[in-house]
Design a protein that fits this description.
- The complex is a heterodimer.
- Chain A folds into 2 domains: 2-199, 3-Layer(aba) Sandwich (Rossmann fold), CATH 3.40.50; 277-386, Rossmann fold (3-Layer(aba) Sandwich).
- Chain A contains 12 helices and 18 strands.
- Chain A has helices at residues 18-29, 43-52, 66-78, 89-104, 132-137, 153-170, 180-183, 253-268, 293-307, 325-331, 348-356, 375-386; strands spanning 2-3, 12-17, 31-36, 59-62, 82-87, 109-117, 123-127, 146-148, 173-179, 186-191, 198-199, 237-239, 276-279, 286-290, 312-317, 319-321, 337-341, 361-365.
- In chain A, strand 5 (82-87), helix 4 (89-104) and strand 6 (109-117) form a beta-alpha-beta unit.
- In chain A, helix 1 packs across helix 2, helix 1 (18-29) runs parallel beside helix 6 (153-170) and helix 9 (293-307) packs across helix 12.
- Chain A is globular, with a radius of gyration of 21 Å.
- Chain A starts with a strand and ends with a helix.
- The relative contact order of chain A is 0.13.
- The mean pLDDT of chain A is 98.
- Chain B is α/β, with parallel strands linked by helices.
- Chain B has a single domain, classed as Thiamin diphosphate (ThDP)-binding fold, Pyr/PP domains (Rossmann fold).
- Helices cover 31% and strands 16% of the residues of chain B.
- Chain B has helices spanning 39-53, 88-98, 110-116, 118-127, 172-179, 192-204, 218-224, 230-240, 273-285; strands spanning 60-64, 79-82, 103-109, 132-137, 140-141, 147-148, 183-188, 209-214, 241-243, 260-267.
- In chain B, the strands form 2 sheets. In chain B, strands 2-1-3-4-8-7-10-9 form an 8-stranded mixed sheet, sandwiched between helices. In chain B, strands 5-6 form a two-stranded antiparallel sheet.
- In chain B, helix 3 (110-116) packs across helix 4 and helix 4 packs across helix 5.
- Classes of the chains: A alpha/beta, B alpha/beta.
- At the A-B interface, strand 3, helix 3, helix 4 and strand 12 of A face strand 2, helix 2, helix 4 and helix 9 of B.
- Strand 12 (237-239) of chain A pairs parallel with strand 2 of chain B, so a sheet runs across the interface.
């Protein structure tokens, strides 16, 4: 692991909202190019980068739309920068086209989605968590994704750095799934010194550029090929079409099988892309699963239920995709049920149901969005499930 | 099935190297384009122009969108990107802003650049991003079977205007100039020498430079409109293209099978996006401004 470039690290103790902390995480991770389009409630991320970039050799451009923003960001990576784009639901929909290109070209970058209420224009200034399945499946074709979901400004900083590290490790776009509550919640954020921040270096090709095959995997443990950027002498080709090791189009079922299976397997076959915070799991009758702002609200519901004598554990997911399937399987035989608390009408809860497959009860504590759950409602759902 | 035996005709192997071997991905030849398509001529002209500019080929980058012309990036032996439909220009913008040392050329079709990508086209020209855009205009969406395009002259028959196109087409040269392009020219696939000269000037010109090339699609456009073969279209260009350098772009609209104007239309000075950004940042921040000069991640380049 490398250390962070001190130019981008605002070491110290700060009072920041989640959007600002996310921007600081990106800058600390080494982001020096951001193409974006204004959308509430995500604009503070772009604004902060636009203000801070000129002091560290970074470039910001406000594009004409999110289609162009995402295309520019994918290209920016191939030009040799660490790149970020940031949006909310409606813009996330438009970005799906070139997120697919980023996945197909194996482009390490991060997209932040500060979720608001949907569908469509929905609730622009109010929270939602209903883009979780869009993050998983929003672009066409088969692929796997990685998504983190911070529950505080401090986590917005830490997990944005983690998102960049994961994107470089697996050469793929990674999502930071904030929500309006965490994005606009102001709390203390501690930014360590640059030499305390671990940065995953880009996996670069080191041989003769003339011999470079852009999609040849040489036994890399993460199943990814090494990169070269434009301008480094390789004169390589890459395409959104199904391609072979040379990056040349090869539209055959055989080539499709090799490429798409690798794109999926490099994430699906891992069980170590997991980041959970667990509390009171031992001997629990009920386990609450939550992420983002729903984790913070669940604390209240769990406290009330425990005061009433219910044995309830809590798993707060920091990485939501890939889903922590193995851990759920480990626990499903020893509990009465899982309660998924999320600000949508059932998305991650479907994943829990799929994995548990009837081995124990699975219940959704959902919410249509616009405000957070009432902790009393969560407590009641826990008690019902514990009966 | 016929059993008739065919005696193979012995072919003498030609070992003469292709004159553009250094610049083409010979392992991808033959290309996928139809016989008499204008794209081979455009690629040849572009390579000739790139040679003339004497830019370091390692810093040259070609970006294409989707469609017949979208395949150009795949045949030129430079760092080359075959991107998504309509997004070649924002992709080129991202490359140029990420590494301003790159010389970025967009080659794409009329539907890609001015239909689905129209918004990006006008904004890149407005910003005066320092890229060169070559638009190969065959008046239709050819890759998908010859549908009506934003450039289809009225009343040409296409697969989605079986009774004749009636929407007014774009005058691309005028659109580019109106949005701020520093260099605008138009030729046909017949005007090879002039096309090379204009492409060279466009590549050397700082800012958003635009070269439109009218190119024959005999498979779809000519066939549906009973205009004959690709050769007949070239003959049509010969007889009907009027060279008028410096012609005001509002006058260069194209009517169906009528004489039309080609030439170098616009060549003007205008600060690029980078010029203006650096000037503004320096005026506002002075010595504190650290410009982005190249890649921020570079493990094995200088």
């Amino acid at each position: 692991m490398d250390k962070a470039d001190p130019l981008g690290v605002l070491t110290g103790s700060h009072y920041l909202d989640g959007d600002e902390a996310c921007a600081e995480g990106a800058l600390a991770a080494g982001v020096r190019f951001l193409a974006g389009y204004p959308i509430t409630p995500s604009t503070e991320v772009a604004e902060r980068c636009a203000a801070r970039f000129p002091f560290m050799g970074g470039t910001f451009i406000q594009m004409e739309d999110e289609l162009g923003s995402m295309a520019a960001v994918v290209a920016g990576v191939w030009g040799g920068s660490k790149c970020l784009s940031v949006t909310s639901g409606p813009g996330f929909s438009l970005m799906m086209e070139n997120i697919g290109l980023g996945i197909m070209m194996e482009t390490p970058l991060v997209v932040v989605n500060v979720q608001r209420g949907g569908p469509s224009t929905g609730l622009p200034t109010m929270p939602g968590q209903a883009d979780m399945m869009q993050a998983r499946w929003g672009s066409h074709g088969d692929y796997e994704v990685i998504a983190v979901a911070p529950n505080s400004p401090q986590e917005a900083f830490d997990l944005t750095i983690e998102a960049f590290n994961l994107s470089e490790r697996f050469r793929t776009p990674v999502f930071v799934m904030l929500d309006e509550c965490v994005g606009h919640m102001t709390e203390k954020v501690i930014i360590p010194s640059a030499d305390e921040i671990e940065i995953e270096p880009r996996y670069m090709y080191t041989g003769d550029p003339k011999e470079y095959l852009p999609y040849k995997v040489n036994g890399n443990k993460n199943n990814i090929p090494p990169m070269l950027h434009a301008g480094q002498g390789a004169r390589f080709h890459t395409t959104g079409l199904t391609h072979d090791e040379r990056g040349y189009p090869d539209m055959t079922p055989a080539c499709q099988a090799v490429l798409v299976n690798r794109l999926v397997d490099k994430i699906r076959k891992r069980d170590d892309i997991v980041l959970l915070e667990e509390d009171g799991i031992e001997g629990a009758d009920v386990i609450v699963l939550s992420y983002g702002i729903s984790t913070r609200v669940s604390y209240g519901g769990i406290r009330i239920a425990r005061e009433r004598g219910v044995k309830v554990g809590h798993i707060s997911m920091k990485i939501v995709w890939p889903f922590p399937e193995k851990r759920i399987r480990e626990l499903m035989d020893s509990v009465k049920g899982f309660l998924t608390v999320e600000m949508n009408l059932g998305q991650i809860s479907l994943e829990v149901e799929r994995i548990v497959a009837g081995q124990c009860k699975t219940v959704l504590c959902g919410h249509a969005g616009g405000t957070v759950h009432d902790p009393k409602v969560i407590a009641k759902a826990i008690e019902e499930l514990a009966k | 099935m016929s059993d008739t035996a065919v005696t193979p005709v012995p072919v003498k192997e030609d070992t003469t190297p292709h004159p553009m071997e250094e610049w083409l991905r010979m392992d991808r030849i033959p290309h996928i384009w139809c016989p008499t398509c204008g794209l081979g001529i455009v690629v040849t002209a572009l390579v000739e122009a790139l040679k003339k500019t004497e830019f370091d080929p390692d810093l040259l980058t070609v970006v294409s969108g989707i469609g017949c012309t979208g395949r150009v990036a795949g045949y030129i032996k430079l760092d080359s990107f075959h991107t998504t439909h309509g997004r070649a220009i924002p992709f080129a913008t991202g490359l140029k802003l990420s590494n301003p040392k790159l010389k970025v050329v967009v080659v794409s079709g009329d539907g890609d650049l001015t239909g689905i990508g129209g918004n990006h086209f006008i904004h890149a020209a407005r910003r005066n991003i320092d890229i060169t855009v070559v638009c190969v205009n065959n008046f239709i969406y050819a890759m998908t079977g010859g549908q009506v395009a934003p450039t289809t002259p009225n009343p040409a028959v296409t697969s989605t205007t079986p009774y004749g196109a009636f929407e007014p087409p774009f005058n691309l040269a005028n659109l580019a100039e109106a949005c701020g392009a520093t260099y605008v020219s138009r030729w046909t696939a017949l005007h090879v020498r002039r096309m090379v000269e204009s492409m060279t000037r466009a590549l050397m010109k700082p800012g958003f430079s635009f070269v439109e090339v009218i190119a024959p699609c005999s498979t779809l456009y000519a066939r549906r409109n009973r205009l004959g073969s690709g050769l007949d279209l070239m003959k049509f260009y010969h007889d009907n293209a009027i060279i008028k350098n410096g012609c005001p772009t509002p006058e260069v609209g194209i009517d169906f099978q009528k004489p039309f104007i080609v030439g170098d239309f616009v060549d003007k000075e205008r600060p690029t996006w980078h010029d203006r950004m650096r000037a503004q940042m320096t005026a506002s921040l002075g010595d504190k401004f650290i410009p982005k000069e190249g890649p921020s991640i570079c493990t094995n380049c200088e």
